[in-house]
Amino acid sequence: MMIPSANTLFAERALLPGGWQRNVALSWGADGRLTSVESAVAPRNDSMLAAGPVLPGMCNLHSHAFQRAMAGLTEYLGHPQDSFWSWRDLMYRFAARLTPETLYAVARQLYIEMLKAGYTSVCEFHYIHHDIDGRPYANPARLSEQLIAAAHDAGIGLTLLPVLYQNSGFGGLPPLPQQARFIASGDWMLDLLARLAREHPVHDGLRYGAAPHSLRAVTPQALDALRAALHASDPLAPIHIHIAEQTREVDDGIVALGARPVRWLLDHQPVDERWCLVHATHLTPDETADLAASGAVAGLCPSTEANLGDGVFDAARYLNAGGRWGIGSDSHVSVSPLEELRLLEYGQRLRDQRRNVLACAAAPAVADRLYGQAVAGGAQAAARPIAGLAPGQRADFIVLDAEHPDLAWRRDDQLLAGLIFCQHGDNPIRDVYAGGRRVVAERRHPAEGGAGHAYRTALKTLLA
Description:
Layout: E1 8-16, E2 19-28, E3 34-38, E4 48-49, E5 54-56, E6 58-63, H1 84-95, H2 100-117, E7 119-126, H3 142-154, E8 157-164, H4 186-199, E9 206-208, E10 211-212, H5 220-233, E11 239-243, H6 247-257, H7 261-268, E12 275-279, H8 285-294, E13 297-300, H9 302-307, H10 315-320, E14 324-327, H11 337-352, H12 366-382, E15 397-400, H13 412-421, E16 429-434, E17 437-440, H14 448-463
Parallel strand pairs: 1-4, 6-7, 7-8, 8-9, 8-10, 11-12, 12-13, 13-14
Antiparallel strand pairs: 1-2, 2-3, 5-15, 15-16, 16-17
Helix pairs in contact: 2-3, 2-14, 4-5, 12-13
């Protein structure tokens, strides 16, 4: 059960789309959407008072929830050339053990952790569809429904992206036995989406899209059919796809498709603002410019990309070209939007051997630029009204601890830098609101005790 709250919050400082404002009143309706955002006003008698500065909540645009239970289990040398591909073999073995009950327990724990870290929404890239032996469940939505229930019970907004996964590699290679739980036809996927929309209707806190896993895992024909059918039924539905994460994937794409994966996708699909290209790590300058011009979102997951040795996305070139982007925690070795933003900037610094790489003359405060653009890109990728503190958007926001050592006495132009580029002491996020409901109060979620116990029980089963 969520903690009840009034529908007006007064903040001495709040980050609005135009920048920091003072004496801000945020009001929202019973539907959880902001009805007014006023600055330079006095608090009303019935207003709640924010304990510190208020920021819009962040969307985690790329999550594989079950992998939360794997975090830290693959940090040993299992192969002389350890890479994403050897990690993937371990992931397959772990995925084979999941049950609906353990998936729910892991996902609820993860989503509570996300909320406490400042994520108020998540895009779940969900590719485990079938029973342990690969046979479809009598209810094909059984595992999807565990994720919907976990998000609802935690109080986080969800864009659920069932994954089309058909092949083990480019050229329509047959799936591997360990991929049996993932494999589905395009018709099966569309039937699943129709069933979910019927039994769990879309609302401000729940949205559906689809995710062709990658150009490795679907053929061009299957991608065409899925995209056309999805957009015929829901013209604004998001499409997410893994792409160009590894150099081997790029090399194999050249052999199989006659082009690098991002180049092929841009040339053969109507890539626009409905698309999210996850990772897109290895791009040429021309691909970078063309992806930016398409209006699509680049889904960047710096903690996972570092953990798997993927490489460093050329964020400086992409941002300078006006590219849209957001952040995700992917395999959940970390569940912190602050760390993702910090690592994104630090990767550029290490590569270029200079500081404040992702700032620019028009936006010299690098933390402010990163946070604002990540909020906007995450909202676009989620296809939900979560683009910041403005009327018509969902009342998703976080309240910082004004007395935290990294934030105390900071000017407006120093506050986000202290939040993102300092890491000392307790969590600086004090309260979290999602859809106008206070789901984290004084750093605690009301369900975290029971969820933690259920997670540890699930983990015992999964690791037995």
